[in-house]
Backbone:
């Protein structure tokens, strides 16, 4: 009624309402299971059907009776983190490669076009593709905790890809071949590190290791063979200045063969 003050002060009334809400929502029995959202870790009670924080449906399989630990979050986060990081770095390397390709193609109008450099550019393109394929297949199948090395290695891949592209722009054929083994060395470090991390969690990676453990040695051997061939090509060009179109074609086919090798070796991860 007008002219009468509210008999219950606002702060007391709010407290009263909150107490009623808590009394209704909280389970009477302490044995009632409280669910947690694996997406954000928020507790979900009061028989609600969506997470109050991220809005995810309670019928979604990510709801669990146990609160996810930081260990679980890191395991779930690793594939997304790694594939995203590698994709960004490989996209930058691909942009540098396209710039070098457009520069070479512009030499057609100038009358100074040399097909060797365009062939080498396509060879480096297959190297970039092979790194991306390997990362996306292996990282998605592994269950590992990210380490500092996992953040460092992709950047070294980008660096070892940028250096030979730089020598293509300079038309330094010997230095181009001699710079390629660095990429193979980073790949060897990556294989050893990733499989070592997978073996630290044998139960979570049991199926992966059963299928792919023999492949680790093959991949390392392939990287060593490729590095040796590239050093041989570099020394030939450095001492004899052949400017050989045949070596460039062999380089291209070596990298095409690498894609075929990866496709057949990693196909086991796609079998179902």
Residues:
């Amino acid at each position: 009624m007008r002219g009468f003050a509210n008999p219950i002060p606002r702060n007391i009334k709010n407290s009263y309402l909150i107490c009623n809400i808590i009394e209704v929502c909280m389970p009477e029995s302490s044995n009632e299971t409280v669910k947690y959202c694996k997406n954000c870790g928020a507790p979900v009670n009061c028989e609600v059907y969506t997470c109050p924080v991220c809005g995810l449906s309670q019928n979604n399989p990510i709801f669990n009776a146990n609160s996810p630990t930081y260990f679980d979050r890191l395991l779930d986060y690793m594939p997304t983190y790694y594939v995203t990081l590698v994709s960004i770095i490989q996209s930058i390397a691909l942009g540098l490669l396209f710039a070098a390709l457009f520069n070479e193609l512009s030499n057609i109008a100038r009358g100074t076009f040399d097909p060797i450099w365009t062939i080498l550019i396509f060879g480096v393109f297959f190297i970039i593709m092979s790194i991306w394929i390997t990362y996306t297949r292996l990282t998605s199948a592994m269950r590992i905790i990210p380490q500092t090395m996992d953040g460092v290695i992709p950047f070294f891949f980008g660096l070892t890809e940028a250096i030979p592209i730089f020598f293509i722009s300079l038309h330094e054929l010997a230095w181009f071949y001699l710079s390629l083994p660095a990429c193979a060395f980073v790949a060897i470090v990556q294989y050893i590190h990733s499989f070592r991390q997978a073996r630290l969690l044998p139960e979570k990676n049991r199926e992966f290791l059963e299928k792919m453990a023999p492949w680790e040695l093959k991949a390392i051997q392939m990287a060593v063979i490729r590095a040796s061939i590239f050093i041989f090509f570099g020394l030939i060009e450095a001492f004899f200045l052949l400017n050989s179109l045949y070596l460039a074609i062999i380089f291209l086919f070596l990298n095409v063969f690498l894609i075929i090798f990866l496709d057949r070796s990693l196909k086991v991860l796609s079998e179902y």
Observations:
- Helices lie at 10-25, 70-110, 115-141, 148-170, 173-179, 181-199, 206-240, 245-266.
